[in-house]
Design goal:
Radius of gyration: 17 Å
Distance between the termini: 47 Å
Number of helices: 10
Strand content: 15-25%
Shape: globular
Strand order of the largest sheet: 2-1-3-4-6-5-7
Helix content: 25-40%
Order of helices and strands: HEEHEHHEHHEHEHHEH
Length: 251
């Protein structure tokens, strides 16, 4: 008897095993992006831009054309690619250290110019690859390698809320924050990623999906605890939802 296939690996990913730590949800987010590209039948027409950080090797995992950008410069590289090849789908895949710190000007100005690209922004509230230092998204009171007593707003300032900031720009067409801490929210994250690429397909301008993610290694938690920490600690600071949607206006 032939058994029914209930799940299979997406063709949007290569066969190379990822290097991510156990419990890190980068792999889950990779799969969501890859599934969307496959389901939209645009793998052959897509160019991704890898960032610097834990996802620096993402060009080895996505089964589409990829290029590498210097630290924080992925939106600038994506801008150049999209302007030269306007009929291609172009996306960046960036962490919070890459996008919200050294690359904050790049993403702001790409959105302000209404560049017709899609940004996948993974926020785990810490610098993962370099040893767990404070990131622009680190929570007040959160202990890191550079804030061993917890982030103090009077010294290090407050977390940067990227979605809220980018949504104020006229060139931003679709901005949503989602999470990866359970199955229900992972499904919502996939829909948001699909909406972002559909926004690019319609030529409406800049789209970005921020995904709240885990970092068990640098948080000092096990994988299950880290998922709970996203739900209990990150979501209240970074509320989930759609912050801008020009698709509704233009439908």
């Amino acid at each position: 008897m032939t058994m029914k296939t209930v799940f299979k690996k997406t063709s949007g990913l290569t066969d190379k095993p990822t290097h991510y730590c156990p419990g890190c949800t980068h792999g889950v987010i990779h799969r969501l992006v890859a599934e969307v590209l496959e389901e939209m039948d645009i793998l052959e027409d897509t160019i991704g831009v890898a960032s610097v950080g834990c996802s620096v090797l993402s060009y080895e995992y996505f089964n589409c054309d990829m290029t590498q950008a210097a630290h924080g410069r992925a939106p600038a590289v994506a801008t150049g690619v999209k302007r030269v090849l306007p009929n291609r789908f172009v996306f960046t895949y960036q962490g919070d250290g890459d996008l919200a710190s050294i690359g904050i000007s790049e993403v702001i100005h790409a959105a302000a110019r209404a560049e017709n690209i899609t940004v996948i922004f993974v926020n785990n509230a810490i610098y993962g690859m370099t040893g767990g230092q404070m990131a622009p998204t680190t929570l007040i009171g959160q202990k890191t390698a550079t804030t061993p007593f917890g982030r103090d707003a009077s010294i290090q300032g407050s977390p940067i809320k990227v979605c809220e900031m980018i949504a104020t720009l006229d060139g931003a067409a679709y901005i949503e924050r989602v999470s990866s801490h359970d199955v229900q929210h992972i499904q919502k994250a996939k829909r948001a990623i699909r909406n972002a690429f559909e926004t690019q397909k319609k030529g409406l301008g800049f789209s970005m999906v921020e995904v709240l993610s885990t970092c068990p290694t640098n948080w000092g938690l096990d994988p299950a605890e880290s998922l709970e920490w996203v739900k209990d600690s990150m979501v209240p600071v970074y509320p989930l939802g759609v912050y801008k949607n020009k698709r509704e206006v233009n439908n």
